[in-house]
Amino acid sequence: MAFGRKGEDSGAPIDRPSSPPPSSSNAGGLTAFIDQGSAFEGKLSFKDTVRIDGSFNGEIASENTLIVGETGEVNANIKSRSVMISGAVVGDVNASRQLVLHKTARLQGNIETASLVIEAGAIVNGEVSMKAPGAERSGKGGNLTAVEGGQSTDAPKK
Predict the structure, then answer these.
(1) Contacts for 34-43 with beta carbons within 8 Å, 24 or more apart?
(2) Contact predicate 131/113, CB 8 Å
(3) How far apart, in whole angstroms, are the C-alpha atoms of residue 156 and residue 34?
(4) DSSP 3-state assignment of 133?
(5) Per the confidence metrics, is the pTM higher than 0.90?
(6) How far apart are CA 135 and CA 132, in angstroms?
(7) How many CA atoms lie within 13 A of 129 on its CB side?
(8) What are the backbone angles phi and psi of residue 70, rounded to the nearest 5°?
């Protein structure tokens, strides 16, 4: 059905409204996204997954996953279930389940986690404390995985 004068067809394409953006429940579990060029300061608390590609300064507490992208710059103490870092972080990281440092990661701070994966090229300056999953400094070691050239090697436990 065309609107306008009868018998006249402009031949121009019809603009249709785009579909609504996906809700947070079906957007891959991503709760928030701080994009490159954006800056945020304060306390960030969340239950699902947050990705930071911009700048964040403050404190981060999570029940799930924090992703710091290659362009992300975080100056904060982080407490989360899982943390994946590809950018720069200054602050202590407590990842109760796993911390992954990709080859472009730069971390200046202490680490406490049950499982640590460090890709070749990642830069880490700080102390590392390994703990058993779900334990609070039980004295039992966690898992340390070194990744080089796509091959992973589990470090021996003492």
Answers:
(1) 34/72, 36/69, 36/71
(2) yes
(3) 38
(4) coil
(5) no
(6) 5
(7) 14
(8) -55, -35
Cα–Cα distance measured from residue 89 to residue 55, given in angstroms and rounded to the nearest whole number:
10
How many residues does this entry show for the chain?
158
Q: What CA–CA distance (Å, rounded) separates 28 from 82?
A: 16
Break the chain into its structural domains and give their ranges: 27-154
CA 147 to chain centre: 19
Measure the CA angle with vertex 34, ends 32 and 40; round to 5°. 110
- AA identity, residue 61: A
pLDDT tens for 102-145 read 999 999 999 999 999 999 999 999 999 998 765 554 444 555 55
Contact 93, 109 (CB under 8 A): yes
Strands of the chain, DSSP E: 30-34, 39-46, 49-52, 55-62, 65-68, 73-85, 88-90, 93-101, 106-108, 111-113, 115-119, 123-125, 128-130, 143-148, 151-154
